């Protein structure tokens, strides 16, 4: 409690941390990318300790000219057309705790199974999101499944999408047992079926949404620079799109990867591609173009379903990066005003809001799922060192301890995303 009484101090300290963080983030763009691509490979259910590549395989740091800026949280935009804005509010104590645990949900990915992995503190489990101007009821699996009878619901995006779908799955499996009907080789794209309700739930791996060629070896280490077509979409999701009644879709952090960009099959620029003699256009350019293509597709699709467009999800590495000792061991949420959003998340969210706004002019059947700010307030919800099983056990003392301050513990704050989703339905 004490630490949170002196708001200003914390705010200042944390702003500093975030400015530092922004600088590190940009400078270590390359390193971060490796981190991401390595995270993606750990979709398997088993614990796997061959984790991150060692320092010496990292490419040299890249200097970026953009100035790091810390931006304040959005203005007090409480009421939207007289309706409650579900995304403005704060986290309040909720003694009832999570509806599932490591013992009642069997499908939690090992790297997010913080309870099983020995995370000692449990405070992070006892908060719920409380919108400022309305009541947000707890997610009701019964109601949700009834609503989903004879329907199909899919999540399209990167590993945060998978994190989200697992949370939903854990909650729903308290009500009805689910059949695991499909997974690809790496458990990145998956489908589940709820027989009693004739309900299909799936997750489609498409971290860029746009058509990408990623070159990686078996360990997820890039062997060549990614090629991304900003005007073409990934047919992993577009091919099936019309079959879905409900969709959650998001872009995100994969746009920070070293990438060469194409439009009309011609190179138009790149992001972090030293030695390639290609104009650096930055990830913002690419992200905007790709979201425009995505929205164009969705607005012109015949699908009469309902699409949630999710905004970027922030990470909480402090005092360093994933590979330079950055950690996230806070055990309480922030209050509004105690934290500033980082440069990259601010930039991404701005593009997302603008492109969404633009697409809304086409009267599309799409809702903004703006989880960025509420998630920013939960530095305590990440696995941190508990991404691995008992990291400090004697038998692990020679293993490097790696922090994950990007994905979310299950159970954890991401469960609240479902409360909001349910309310929007
Ligand atoms: C762990 O992952 C590495 C790299 O993907 C793989 O070679 C190894 O077989 C895995 N080990 C286990 C126990 O799954
Ligand atoms: C990684 O680099 C840091 C800083 O250069 C160094 O202190 C650390 O020992 C290195 N770790 C490994 C595993 O090489
Ligand atoms: C922000 O919203 C609260 C609650 O509706 C209101 O009392 C307050 O005056 C608002 N502040 C500003 C600066 O608009
Ligand atoms: C769940 O986590 C607790 C610690 O929080 C641990 O004692 C227990 O063995 C775990 N159970 C399973 C099934 O993983
Ligand atoms: C399921 O939905 C499809 C498409 O909306 C409809 O054609 C079909 O009759 C429904 N089946 C049942 C059993 O309700
Ligand atoms: C669920 O998916 C299967 C396989 O794609 C399909 O045959 C079935 O019609 C789907 N059911 C619903 C309700 O969408
Ligand atoms: C870089 O590209 C430009 C324009 O395509 C070309 O004129 C120049 O020779 C290239 N430089 C190198 C070092 O390849
Ligand atoms: C995509 O960008 C074009 C050109 O800037 C614009 O005219 C169009 O409205 C955008 N489409 C959507 C769906 O945002
Ligand atoms: C968090 O970790 C840092 C670095 O290991 C340590 O100095 C600090 O005391 C820790 N804070 C908490 C609340 O555990």
TrEMBL record:
Belongs to the PC-esterase family. TBL subfamily. It comes from the Eukaryota. It comes from Datura stramonium. Residues 136-424 form the Trichome birefringence-like C-terminal domain. InterPro entries: TBL, TBL_C, TBL_N. It is found in: Membrane. This is Trichome birefringence-like N-terminal domain-containing protein. It is a single-pass membrane protein. It holds the Pfam family PC-Esterase. Residues 83-135 form the Trichome birefringence-like N-terminal domain. Keywords: Membrane, Signal-anchor, Transmembrane, Transmembrane helix. The keyword Glycoprotein does not apply. The keyword Transmembrane helix applies.
């Amino acid at each position: 409690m004490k630490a949170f009484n002196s708001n200003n101090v914390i705010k200042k300290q944390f702003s500093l941390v975030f400015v530092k963080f922004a600088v590190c983030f940009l400078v270590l763009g390359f390193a971060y990318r490796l981190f991401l691509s390595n995270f993606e490979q750990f979709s398997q259910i088993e614990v796997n300790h061959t984790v991150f590549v060692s320092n010496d395989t990292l490419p040299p740091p890249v200097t970026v000219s953009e100035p790091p800026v810390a931006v304040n949280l959005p203005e007090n935009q409480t009421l939207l057309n007289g309706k409650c804005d579900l995304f403005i509010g704060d986290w309040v104590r909720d003694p009832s705790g999570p509806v599932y645990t490591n013992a009642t949900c069997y499908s939690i990915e090992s790297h997010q199974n913080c309870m099983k992995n020995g995370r000692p503190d449990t405070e992070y489990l006892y908060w719920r999101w409380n919108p400022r101007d309305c009541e947000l009821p707890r997610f009701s699996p019964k109601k949700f499944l009834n609503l989903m009878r004879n329907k199909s619901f899919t999540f399209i995006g990167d590993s945060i999408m998978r994190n989200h779908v697992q949370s939903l799955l854990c909650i729903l499996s308290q009500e009805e047992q689910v059949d695991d009907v499909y997974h690809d080789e790496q458990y990145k794209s998956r489908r589940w079926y709820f027989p009693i309700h004739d309900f299909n739930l799936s997750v489609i791996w498409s971290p860029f949404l746009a058509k990408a060629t990623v070159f990686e070896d078996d360990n997820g280490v890039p062997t060549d620079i990614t090629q991304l077509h900003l005007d073409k979409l990934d047919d992993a999701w577009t091919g099936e799109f019309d079959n879905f009644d409900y969709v959650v879709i998001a872009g995100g952090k994969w746009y920070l990867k070293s990438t060469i960009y194409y439009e009309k099959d011609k190179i138009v620029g790149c992001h972090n591609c030293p030695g390639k003699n290609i104009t650096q256009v930055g990830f913002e350019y690419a992200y905007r173009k790709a979201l425009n293509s995505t929205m164009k597709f969705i607005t012109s699709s015949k699908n009469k379903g309902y699409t949630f467009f999710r905004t970027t999800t922030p990470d909480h590495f402090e005092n360093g990066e994933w590979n330079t000792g950055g950690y996230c061991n806070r055990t309480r949420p922030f209050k509004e005003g105690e934290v500033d959003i980082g440069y990259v998340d601010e930039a991404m969210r701005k593009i997302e809001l603008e492109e969404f706004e633009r697409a809304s002019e086409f009267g599309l059947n799409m809702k903004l799922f703006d989880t960025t700010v509420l998630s920013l307030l939960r530095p305590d919800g990440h696995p941190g060192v508990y991404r691995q099983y008992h990291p400090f056990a004697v038998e692990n003392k020679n293993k490097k301890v790696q922090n994950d301050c990007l994905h979310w513990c299950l159970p954890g704050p991401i469960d609240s995303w479902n409360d909001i989703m349910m309310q929007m339905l």
